[in-house]
């Protein structure tokens, strides 16, 4: 760095600048009281809290006029504004749990762009191999020709693993589809998700989170085909000689099997396995606002509890909007993190409302840019505390 000045003062100013740089560098690199460890001789301050969505338990920031949160038994849940991405409340948002068929939201996000509905495809026997025992099926038969739109309705309405297997085969195969889903999740900032089986069938190591599933649901609703399929309550599916009716298994959408339809519901996807329990991503629109909720594995009641807990969270969210402060945000779609970056690095490098980002970076960058005014800058940096209320 070159500083312009009269020749007779160069030596004195250079000395002053060097002294300032040394003092500032020492101050910037010295441990601050808040971060000092044992044996430093400095007072220990309370450890800084992680971002709300990274904390265990229920996270909500209510004002005095906000409604009380409902009692929810699910292991993990989240309520977010779909338009802004603001998370209104959550419980163990990043807890990694088996997602069951809610993972089909990620499957559709990944494969829909490559397989539009107008394509026709004759199913081969081998494309239906490997379907897990007890899988939900829509009735895809080898040798029959289907429009891809029929197969997508089989995925979204009947949660048909047979339809997923055929679409995955058309997409390049089972493993290639899983790999592409993993890459898609990463590009969306959904770093809790590990894909092993594209249809959501239980597989060792396959997990997602309430946060990630909300990210998938939000991204899906921005895709016109995805939004249309997930909001369809009933449709005809080609059969052996004649079509038959299929119905969406999301009971909040259809009002079937003892569950009252939720007013304004617009999708998205439910799931169930014995390992995952009941899971649900649901979105509803009311009064100009669209809310998105995720509910994973309720611990009380029967098969309808996931819908009733989602209903309670949607009701609360619509009533609480404007009366709570967000506890974080769903990340927006962004390019894939740099190759080789760990999930922690990728999450920390994003400036999202989840509070991600490491305060240490400010100290390093600040020290690197010190010059003649370095003492003041370093002192100012030492007073910086990155906190979230």
Could you walk me through the main structural features you see in this protein, from its secondary elements to its overall organization?
- The protein is built from twelve helices and twelve strands.
- It is globular.
- It has two domains: 79 residues, no CATH class; 278 residues, DD-peptidase/beta-lactamase superfamily (Beta-lactamase).
- It has 389 residues and is an alpha+beta fold.
- The N terminus and C terminus are likely disordered.
Under CATH, the topology of the largest domain can be stated as: Beta-lactamase
The tally of helices reads 12
Backbone shape:
globular
**What separation lies between the terminal Cα atoms?**
39 Å
Query: What CATH first level of the largest domain would be assigned?
Result: Alpha Beta
